[in-house]
């Protein structure tokens, strides 16, 4: 599943991401694309037992892969 959160104002990107995680199946990966690094999301992911990989994109946005 891929969520493009670019252009959304906080807290919409985090709310959309957390809602999508509720539908994520075992061994699935949620990929989100944000305008900036989602610093507050990382703490939430850790509390929920998720791991993540974050990398910058050529356009200045960030791609975050979320998984268990």
TrEMBL record:
Domain of life the protein comes from: Bacteria
Residue ranges annotated for the DUF2249 domain, each copy included: 3-67
UniProt xrefs under CDD domains: SirA_YedF_YeeD
Listed InterPro entries: DUF2249, TusA-like_sf
Protein name: DUF2249 domain-containing protein
């Amino acid at each position: 599943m891929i969520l493009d959160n670019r252009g959304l104002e906080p807290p919409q990107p985090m709310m959309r991401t957390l809602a999508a995680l509720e539908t994520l199946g075992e061994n699935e990966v949620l990929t989100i694309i944000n305008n900036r690094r989602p610093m507050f999301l990382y703490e939430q992911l850790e509390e929920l037992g998720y791991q993540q990989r974050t990398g910058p994109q050529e356009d200045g946005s960030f791609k975050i892969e979320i998984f268990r």
